[in-house]
TrEMBL record:
Protein name: N-acetyltransferase domain-containing protein
InterPro entries hit by this protein: Acyl_CoA_acyltransferase, GNAT_dom, N-acetyltransferase
Pfam families to which the protein is assigned, alphabetical: Acetyltransf_3
Signal peptide coordinates: none
Listed PROSITE patterns: GNAT
Amino acid sequence: MIATERLILRPPVAADHAALFAMWADPLVTADLGGPKDEAACLAVLERHAGYAPLGFGVVELRGEGAVIGHVGLKPGAPGTPIEGLLEIGWMIGRPWWGGGYAREAASAWRDWAWAHRPEPAIHAITARRNVASRALMERLGMRHIAAMDFQHPKYPAGSEGADTVTYRLDRA
C-alpha cells in the first residue's frame, strides 16, 4: 500500500468491483483501453492484474472517503507490443474524477515506488496517439516519446485511430 496526500494505492478487494466495473463499462473512460467491458471481462482483467501485485498495480482510493476512483500502477508490457515484458505504468480514472490531478498523483507515487523497489532501468507507457490527456500526463511524469517504438496495437482493428499507439519511456536517473 502507498499513501499520498489525497490517495491510498492498494490491491483491489471484492468490495471494489462495483466501482471498477462501472469505470470499465464507461465508453469514454475505456475509449483507449480496448473499449467497454462486461462483468466477465472485468473479472478477467482483475484476475490478470492480481498477478501484477509484486510489481505494484492496484486501485486508487480517495483517502478518508474510501471511494475507489481508478486503477493505476505497474505491470509487464503486453504481449505482441514493443514493450512486451518491460515495466509499464498504466492508469484508468473514473470520469467524475477527471481533471483533479489524481492520475498524476497516483502515477507519480508508483513511479517513485518503482525507483525505490524495482531494478528495471526504465518505465514505459503506451496509449493511442489521439489520447492527448494521457500523453500530457506521461510528459508531466518526465517521460519522453520514443517514436521508434510506436506501433499498431494488435487489440484494435488495423489502421484504426485506436490502433495507432505511441510509446513513452522514463529512464532511471
